[in-house]
Amino acid sequence: MGRLYWFKQTLGQKSRHISTFYKYDTSGTFYAEFENPRFTLDAGMGKNHLTITDLQISDSATYNCASSFSYKFDFLEAIVVSVESSGLNVPVLVDQSASETIQPGGSVTLNCTIHTGTCDGQHNVYWFKDSEESHPGLIYTHGGRNDQCERKPSTQTHTCFYNLPMKSLNLSHSGTYYCAVASCGHILFGDGTKLDFKGDGGSLVLVYFLSGALAFTTILAFFLAFTVCKMNQRNNQSAGWISVSESKSLTVEVQPGEEVTLTCRNMSSRPTLTQWFRLTNGTELSCISSMYESEGWISVSESESQTVEVQPGEEVTLTCRNMSSTPTLTQWFRLTNGTELSCISSIGS
């Protein structure tokens, strides 16, 4: 046989060691407040009996019998002792205000008054919240502090005062707050204090309205930004100057009546405009066809040819009017020595 133990567990408090018995002991060993003639031990082979005489309210608790052998520790029995109060004792009472009405953003202090009667044991005080949005839950505990209590010798009672200050309140704090005391093996709840907010219905509607307006404004801003971005992309694609490199000139000799295929390869990876021009008599230039990479063939009428005579060093302005109402591409070309054709500029409109 190893060692035998007794422990006392009072609700809301730590477990306390009462006694230890070893087979070589004669009466066992008691600890702290249990070194008292009211506590006696009858222990031996196969037994470990604890006797408590002259029972008091503070003896109400759960008593655990345990044993240990080598490195193994086992709880053998758990016995609940509840000492009923006599006519001279005042039962535990918990007083709370019924309700508190506050403004959103305000503060409040919840009060709890506890009358513990003649029970001389330490007590713990807890605050619980119950609301429609969540299950009841513990929000605060005052622990085992009894320094806020007043003793009245004439009535043999303890009166304790506990406060729960709350600040910056909003609608999420709505609910009923309960004060509870654990003392002498019992726990007792107050009737609860309900927190109400003035004009909470109108405030809730206003919050929902402002939230919806903010969401709509955000979506609208993203939509407008996306639209402006797409318009800028289209304008950049259809407007502005486009630089074009000069084309090479090749000579192909054919007989009248024969067929000829002219080949032009576009090595660009971007959408481009490919055009064929015909130069007649070395001076008359006319556009035969135009093709966008994604739009297919577009028919273009021949342009007129005019001659402007200027002196070296003078300035000349060449004018080209586009009378079309649809988006078009206007280009200037230069014919050198009657054979070399090069594009000077392009502009989309």
Descriptive report:
By secondary structure, the protein is mainly beta. Helices cover about 10% and strands about 40% of the residues. It has one helix at about 200-240; strands at about 5-10, 15-20, 30, 40-45, 45-50, 60-70, 70-80, 95, 100, 110-115, 125-130, 135-145, 150, 155-165, 175-185, 185-190, 195, 240, 275-280, 285-290, 295-300, 330-335, 340-349. The strands form 6 sheets. Strands 9, 11, 12, 15, 16 and 17 form a 6-stranded mixed β-sheet that branches. A 5-stranded antiparallel β-sheet has the order 3-2-1-6-7, with no helix packed on it. The longest helix has about 40 residues, at about 200-240. The protein is elongated. About 10% of the residues are buried.
- Roughly how many Å apart are the termini? 105 Å
Order of helices and strands: EEEEEEEEEEEEEEEEEHEEEEEE
**Structural class per helix/strand content?**
mainly beta
- How many helices? The count is 1
Low-confidence stretches: 86-90, 239-243, 295-299
- Any idea what the radius of gyration is? 50 Å
Strand content: 35-45%
Number of strands: 23
Helix content: 10-25%
Largest sheet: 6 strands, mixed
Outline: elongated
Mean pLDDT, nearest integer?
77
